[in-house]
């Protein structure tokens, strides 16, 4: 076994992608393809098999990954070699997936932090898909998944911020009195709601079910972000995260923020990642930026 291939094996299996593995190791795609070919011959296994435009690990590769990681760790310990990541000079590309609401909350602070510390690093942020809870590839295709905690997302999870659900309505909504809505109003008014795929219930859905309130849903959209635009100028009402509501309810605007008549319903957001990412200093650096963001987003006095 050529020990030079050991690190290539680890990174190829962690990334599940020849191009990203090459970027991480500073090698060209042809060079990584040659390394993969040699590893396939060595183990008599494909290791990575193409599924459409992406790759996935073979069953053998899934079992091999933790052994490769431990072998690299022991070898570096024996040689007293530490893997390094220089944020100031790196050109790594990180892929993240999150909801539109999460993007609206964190993108400004996260991009500013990365730009200041690592001007050559690039972030690719994709919309969170409806099948992430059941996907076996999401934490292979993405370095980080940002989403609500407690929804069964794969990987190791860490908290980011907490929010609560409030009501958002047009200033001229006929049921709005003194800036308030009652539970009876919510049952009488038409609703615009966010959908996250079949079977993915939000805390709002569960709360309305527990209260026995039947929402008259007239509009359903993908995600939270379109809701303010849908209800403006109508008698529709929407229940949305407070941070989003405050972005769209300004004194001079048409939308108003309404305290919820159904009590305090919490939305806790966090980020998830494959535990294997912790062996990479670059990923640990990126996780550190999110942990700093968590402190920044914490409410005053928390």
What do you see in this structure?
The protein is an alpha/beta fold and 302 residues long. The chain contains 11 helices and 11 strands. The strands form 3 sheets. Strands 3, 4, 5, 6, 9, 10 and 11 form a 7-stranded mixed β-sheet that branches. The protein has a two-stranded antiparallel sheet with strand order 1-2. A two-stranded parallel sheet has the order 7-8. The radius of gyration is 23 Å and the shape is elongated. It starts with a helix and ends in a 5-residue tail after the last helix. The relative contact order is 0.15. The mean pLDDT is 88.
How many DSSP helices? 11
CATH topology of the largest domain: D-Maltodextrin-Binding Protein, domain 2
Helix amount: 40-55%
Going by CATH, the homologous superfamily of the largest domain would be Periplasmic binding protein-like II
**What average pLDDT do the residues reach?**
88
Second-tier CATH architecture of the largest domain: 3-Layer(aba) Sandwich
Structural class: alpha/beta
Largest sheet, in brief, is: 7 strands, mixed
Number of E strands: 11
Q: Are there runs of 5+ residues with pLDDT below 50, and where?
A: none
CATH class wording of the largest domain: Alpha Beta
* Span between termini: 53 Å
Envelope shape: elongated
Number of domains: 3
What is the string of SSEs from the N terminus onward?
HHHEEHEHEHEEHEHEHEHEEH
> How large is the radius of gyration?
23 Å
Label this structure with key terms.
Arc Repressor Mutant, subunit A; 3 domains; D-Maltodextrin-Binding Protein, domain 2; two-stranded antiparallel sheet; 11 helices; 302 residues; alpha/beta; single chain; 7-stranded mixed beta sheet
């Amino acid at each position: 076994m050529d020990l030079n291939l050991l690190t290539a094996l680890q990174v190829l299996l962690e990334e599940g992608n020849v191009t990203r593995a090459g970027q991480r190791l500073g090698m060209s795609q042809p060079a990584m393809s040659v390394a993969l070919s040699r590893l396939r011959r060595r183990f008599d296994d494909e290791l990575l098999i193409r599924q459409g435009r992406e790759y996935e690990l073979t069953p053998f590769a899934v079992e091999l990954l933790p052994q490769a990681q431990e072998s690299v760790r022991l070898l570096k310990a024996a040689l007293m070699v530490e893997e390094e990541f220089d944020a100031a000079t790196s050109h790594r590309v990180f892929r993240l997936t999150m909801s539109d609401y999460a993007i609206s909350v964190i993108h400004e602070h996260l991009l500013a932090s990365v730009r200041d510390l690592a001007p050559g690093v690039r972030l690719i942020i994709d919309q969170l898909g409806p099948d992430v809870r059941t996907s076996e590839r999401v934490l292979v295709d993405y370095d980080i998944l940002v989403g609500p905690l407690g929804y069964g997302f794969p990987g190791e999870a860490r908290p980011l911020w907490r929010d609560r659900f409030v009501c958002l309505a047009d200033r001229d909504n006929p049921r709005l009195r003194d800036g308030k809505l009652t539970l009876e109003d919510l049952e009488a008014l038409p609703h615009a709601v966010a959908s996250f795929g079949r079977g993915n219930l939000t805390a709002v859905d569960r709360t309305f079910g527990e209260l026995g309130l039947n929402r008259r849903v007239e509009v359903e959209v993908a995600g939270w972000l379109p809701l303010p635009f849908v209800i403006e100028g109508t008698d529709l009402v929407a229940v949305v995260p407070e941070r989003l509501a405050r972005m769209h309810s300004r004194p001079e605007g048409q939308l108003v923020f309404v305290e919820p008549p159904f009590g305090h319903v919490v939305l806790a957001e966090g980020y998830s990642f494959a535990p294997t990412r912790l062996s990479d200093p670059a990923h640990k650096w990126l996780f550190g930026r999110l942990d700093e963001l968590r402190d920044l987003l914490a409410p005053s006095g928390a």
